[in-house]
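User: Teach me something about this protein's shape.
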Amino acid sequence: MQTTLQNTSIENTAFVEYDYRSQQYQEQSNTVTFKTVPDSPEPRTPAEITLMHNSINFSAQLQAANAASGNSGFSSPISSRTINSTNSSRSFSNISSRTTASSTGAALNGAFSVQSGQCATDATGSNLIAQPTPTDYQGKPLAIPSTLSLASDEFFKVGDTIFVHIKDLDQNQNAALIEKIIVTIISDNGNDQETIQLTETNASSGLFTGFIQSVDVNAVGATAFNCELSVTNDSSMQASYQDKLDPRDLVKAGALFDPNSYVVNADTGEYVNGIEVTLIDATTDLPADILSDEGGVFPNPVITGNSYTINGTTYAFPYGGFAFPVLASGDYLIKVGGSAYHKYPIDELKLLNDINALPSGPFNLDELGSRGRKFISGITFRLDVPVENLDNNVILTKTSNKATAGIGELIQLTQST
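Assistant: First, the predicted structure itself:
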């Protein structure tokens, strides 16, 4: 016996023939269309949303950068590109075990089928046009459609393509068809809004992928529903998905673009300028290799609040701020240079919650990285570093050889500390 597939449309028309007073009659009803459902309806499955980026070939870029610069591609000039110091997105903290890039908090990576996409031209989401070919943050086109190596990350570069992955098994309504769903994306403070269509990775998978191209709002402005998400450094985005069959199933994920980190006085909450910060590769215990956005060699260590120029582009850190633009995914540690006024890491008895409670908090503190322990990073990170004041008070004591003396009389003083 052949089984009819779930969600199959069936048309039904009724006919009746009868005799009345030796006359034969035939009547036909209106045609009614309905769809098949399982004998026992399957329970709704909760959706999951994850933000991902295309993995870069860090080793190849580093080799090219070293060859081009002789491993010395930076200087210390005047600022021509200011790194925004706005702290509007402090709710996104770097927690190694969980990520805001996923509604479940779990990391995701692997090979994913990505098809040519469509995006909406208005708020209704019903008028769709083809999306342009996506590019990476350096402007290089990505091959679409294809299978791409993607990894979840809550941090992106301005100019990155953000890939959106949805797992919603109950949206696989027809096992014979590749289906589509809609996702809404909003940039920082609602300055831009885009709607994109995601395509099922294959028939009957219940997994969907799509993408949106980010662009620099300072260069092109912000226009809603133009298939590009306008962002700037230290800004945020949020992607949301609503299951059309279940109004209770709404999931969201968020990310930051080119974030800054800060050295923070753990006693006052003030940012601290002029502090040397080194990013250590946890596997070698040596300073990590860092790339600039343009593919040059970026300095490590850096000084909070300083400026650096790489291949003609100047990075000017905000007061107390620092950043390492492009990293290879892996394990790292932060080290702070010796200072006569501050110590790091802070005392284990000093609670990060107490620092966050200071008037200028909360900060982006993590029990691992902020305390000098190993933490995990993707392409970049945001992680504030608390330092404690050193007790540099000196008590000077002076004693004389006489309790009283007359005018002009010589007194011998002895000074001790």
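Now, about its shape. Residues 48-57+96-257 form one domain. Confidence is low (pLDDT under 50) at residues 72-96. If you'd like, I can walk through any region in more detail.
User: That's plenty for now, thanks!
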